[in-house]
Design a protein that fits this description.
Largest sheet: 7 strands, antiparallel
Radius of gyration: 31 Å
Number of strands: 13
Oligomer: single chain
Strand content: 15-25%
């Protein structure tokens, strides 16, 4: 028979009442809280008991303090005089329990309770979440810039799509947490001013939504490993994951050690932060070294490979020139994601060069967005580049010649986008033949 039980510790100072409810429910089932850990709540098997719990906050206390302050000890003694026994502490949080049938509430002043919760949130949680939210917003800006640079590659890469999905999920979750907290705080502040209790905290919903960040991280890691192009790339991702987990473990061990040494909270906090920065920079440096040492920068990117066996190409240099070359250099590559298939051909010959892309994408709005984005990138959007007489069945088309003598053509169909770049001039008859050939 198991004598121990563990529950994931995903509670914040906003969840004090909900946490007390969970602990009371476990006690009635015969499980008593034995340890309040960083990641898990530890329970020991006992006889079912009707225990009352209360969660309070002492904002001046932090995880970095080796000992309780005099004010915190006085507060605990006052609670003990009312029959409340201290069960566990975690930073600014204190958990009390009593077996009295009708205990005297520890906190009856709603205004004090609100300020204690706000102080604990502001000191221990708010800054980190705001910084993480800013980081996610910056990542979204970066991904949008990447999309503008090469939309074809992004929508046809499961790794890119998963990264964007994970960032969007985390951004939405952090917005819910951060903005939701301020809405609750100001609403509760107004309610208290009117002599009413604080607003409900929606802790059940918040705990359900905590599956979002962990699910997003798991999804990203899984797709990265499955979509990796080589064994070295998989090892690279696994090393990053292991190193990240190791940093948290090392910091946790060091924090406990500093407390045992009796360091004050300020010294412990500053030293821990300095070490975390050093470890993070070391991780970044190691990532760069590994990428360089095993030349993963090329193997992890989409590459066109020269092949001898490939599907019949949409267009060849022979189609444009009528000149036969015995051994042209032809490269071919296909990238497929859950959204799109991106096929690329590249041919180099004595008479010229040719590169074309086809992107098959089912979502109309996304296909048009990709087309317009890539048209801007390749400077198609000037009026004089628009083909007035649309090619065969095309919805939109652009063509222009560069100063270097290259001819570029982009065509939007109801299910595909075509981009062609060649240094062979495309005349009207060739354009008509080409677009009819595309739609066969």
């Amino acid at each position: 028979m198991l004598n121990n039980k563990y529950i994931l510790n995903n509670f914040t100072p906003l969840d004090g009442d909900y946490l007390a409810h969970i602990l009371e429910k476990q006690a009635r089932k015969g499980w008593m809280l034995s340890k309040y850990g960083n990641m898990l709540l530890h329970f020991s098997k006992t006889e079912p008991q009707d225990i009352h719990y209360a969660v309070t906050f002492f904002p001046e206390a932090t995880d970095f303090d080796p000992h309780m302050s005099e004010g915190q000890e006085t507060y605990i003694d006052l609670c003990a005089a009312q029959g409340w026994t201290l069960t566990a502490t975690k930073g600014p949080m204190q958990i009390f329990q009593t077996d009295r049938t009708d205990p005297v509430p520890i906190e009856t002043d709603e205004a004090y309770k609100l300020q204690a919760i706000h102080g604990a949130i502001k000191k221990s949680y708010l800054l980190g979440r705001v910084l993480l939210l800013l980081s996610m917003l910056l990542q979204l800006v970066t991904q949008w810039q990447n999309f503008q640079f090469n939309a074809f590659s992004m929508v046809s890469s499961n790794t890119s799509l998963t990264l964007i999905t994970a960032v969007l999920l985390l951004t939405g979750y952090l917005l819910f947490e951060t903005v939701g907290y301020f809405i609750w705080y100001h609403g509760s502040k107004q309610a208290v001013a009117e002599g009413k209790p604080c607003l409900p905290t929606l802790s059940r919903l918040r705990n359900l939504l905590l599956a979002v960040p962990s699910g997003a991280a798991l999804l990203l890691v899984t797709v990265l490993l499955l979509d990796a192009t080589s064994a070295n790339a998989r090892i690279y991702y696994l090393l990053i994951l292991a190193a990240t987990i190791s940093i948290f473990v090392i910091l946790s061990i060091l924090l406990k050690w500093f407390k045992k040494l009796g360091w004050d909270g300020k010294k412990t906090r500053n030293t821990t932060m300095a070490i975390s920065v050093i470890l993070s920079l070391t991780l970044c440096g190691g990532m760069v070294w590994y990428l360089t040492a095993f030349d993963l920068r090329s193997t992890m990117q989409e590459q066109m490979e020269e092949v001898t066996d490939f599907p019949d190409p949409l267009l060849t240099l022979y189609d444009l020139t009528g000149l036969i070359e015995t051994a042209p250099s032809i490269r071919h590559d296909i990238n497929t994601s859950v959204l799109a298939t991106h096929t690329r051909y590249s041919e180099d010959g004595v008479e010229g060069s040719l590169e074309y892309h086809t992107l098959e994408l089912g979502w109309n709005w996304l296909r048009e967005l990709v087309f317009d984005t890539m048209a801007k990138r390749y400077h198609f959007t000037d009026r004089e580049n628009l083909i007035r007489s649309l090619p065969y069945q095309a919805e939109k088309a652009y063509m222009y010649s560069t100063e270097s003598g290259h001819y570029r053509l982009m065509i939007l169909y109801d299910d595909s986008i075509f981009y062609i770049d060649t240094d062979i001039g495309i005349v009207g008859l060739q354009l008509t033949w080409l677009t009819m050939h595309i739609r066969k």
